[in-house]
From TrEMBL:
<protein>
    <submittedName>
        <fullName>Galactose-1-phosphate uridylyltransferase</fullName>
    </submittedName>
</protein>
<dbReference type="InterPro" id="IPR036265">
    <property type="entry name" value="HIT-like_sf"/>
</dbReference>
<keyword id="KW-0808">Transferase</keyword>
<keyword id="KW-0548">Nucleotidyltransferase</keyword>
<dbReference type="GO" id="GO:0016779">
    <property type="term" value="F:nucleotidyltransferase activity"/>
</dbReference>
Length: 97
């Protein structure tokens, strides 16, 4: 589970993610895969894909789109997350330590 830590000397906040400690060489694949049609239709960024319409959220501005991060740095269960336990307050733009 990633942790948010503060450097007590500089005050800088740092994300420590031990689960993401693999080296870039650990992600190299032996062979390239071909993109199949069923994979292309599941692509969130492909305009004609089924996932594009299902997962992207459009705001009032037609040039702004959002998609939920598939691998977020911080995550918690719905039961654990509440206004009482959250650390970031976007309305005030600050983190609570």
């Amino acid at each position: 589970m990633p942790q948010l830590r503060q450097n007590i000397i500089t005050g800088e906040w740092v994300v420590i993610a031990p689960a993401r400690s693999k080296r870039p060489d650990d992600y190299i694949r032996a062979q390239k895969r071909e993109v199949k049609d069923e994979l292309a239709s599941a692509c969130v960024f492909c305009l004609n894909g089924s996932e594009f319409k299902r997962r992207l959220k459009n705001f009032d501005n037609k040039h702004t789109w959002t998609i939920q991060n598939k691998f977020p740095a911080f995550a918690c269960d719905e039961k654990e997350c509440s206004d009482r336990t959250r650390s970031y307050y976007p309305e005030h733009q600050f983190y609570r330590a």
